[in-house]
Design goal:
By secondary structure, the chain is an alpha/beta fold. The chain contains eight helices and seven strands. Keywords: Glycosyltransferase, Transferase.
């Protein structure tokens, strides 16, 4: 039996990139629908997304954050989907690489796939956030996951049914990875040629990574206390 596959895509002021991102998905026969949740954009993100026949676009009245937008889209996807993917709206044409995340779930009975990006083209931080995430997952699950920060993922529906809602904050991916592994689901990292906006070595980039580090440390502390 064919599996019904949905992609949930939060988007905020992505009018310059979302067209290419959706163009990268339109010829993937596996994908039945893309649910775009415009998170209160002030540009033409919603209008562009709505112009695609395979897209079901939703517009939030105000910016609520990525976690809220994911949960909003998930409640529609989970009604009829067997497989659900999360993708960012700024991937451009490299979004087509999601096919590499879907095939192991269809053909190898994998429960969750995580996109493993190539090395960043420009230097960002000093790797502290990535090390914290990797070491935290290893300590709490015994599994080595290089890409636990990656938000580009595909799930069997039953995995997402384990969560009442997707947690909010910068530590969401790490926390989900730990919970999924602890519940015994199989996780496969898949090397993809995806690219998206990278944070650089500037004040904005360091503030972003500082928030990531703080949120991930909180999540890991919570998980350790509940072991």
């Amino acid at each position: 039996m064919d599996k019904y596959i949905s992609i949930v895509m939060p988007a905020y002021n992505e009018e310059s990139r979302i067209k290419d991102t959706l163009d990268g998905l339109k010829d993937i026969s596996y994908i039945n629908e893309v649910i775009v949740v415009d998170d209160g954009s002030s540009d033409k993100t919603f209008e562009i997304a709505s112009s695609y026949p395979f897209v079901k676009a939703h517009k939030l009245e105000k910016n609520m954050g990525k976690g809220y937008a994911l949960n909003y889209g998930l409640k529609y996807a989970i009604e009829k989907s067997d497989i659900i993917g999360f993708l960012d709206a700024d991937l451009g044409l490299t979004s087509k690489e999601v096919e590499k995340l879907i095939t192991p779930i269809l053909n190898e009975n994998i429960d969750v796939t995580i996109a493993k990006f190539p090395k960043a083209k420009r230097k960002g931080g000093v790797g502290l956030v990535k090390k914290l995430a990797k070491n935290g997952v290893k300590y709490l699950t015994g599994k080595e996951i290089e890409s636990s920060l990656s938000g580009q993922r595909v799930f069997k529906k039953e995995v997402l049914m384990e969560f009442d809602k997707i947690p909010f904050g910068y530590g969401v991916e790490v926390g989900m990875t730990i919970d999924i592994l602890r519940k015994g689901y199989s996780v496969k990292e898949v090397l993809v040629n995806m690219t998206h906006n990278e944070t650089g070595r500037n004040l904005k980039g360091f503030i972003h990574r500082g928030k990531q580090f703080y949120h991930i440390a909180l999540i890991l502390g919570e998980k350790i206390l509940r072991r």
